[in-house]
Amino acid sequence: MGRRLWRRPPTNHADQAAWMKAHPFEWLDVSTYPAAYSAHTVARAIRTGDRVSISRHYGPAGAFETPTTTTEQGTTVHARFIGKAING
Length: 88
Hints:
four-stranded antiparallel beta sheet, alpha+beta
């Protein structure tokens, strides 16, 4: 038998961004990705707004913090809303 790859359920970024904006400074696990590169790409998109399909829910750029952690299932993206971005 062939090996079945684990598929994560799709992430509803609109709902997650809305929850974080309603609960500022509270951490939320956005999703766990099997590939670290995917997790880091999503984390950067949330922070900087560089991928329109994801970042349109998380504006403005700099309004979210997004660390990642390594788990047995892959790499988890955590995020929290910190408010308006500060230029400086």
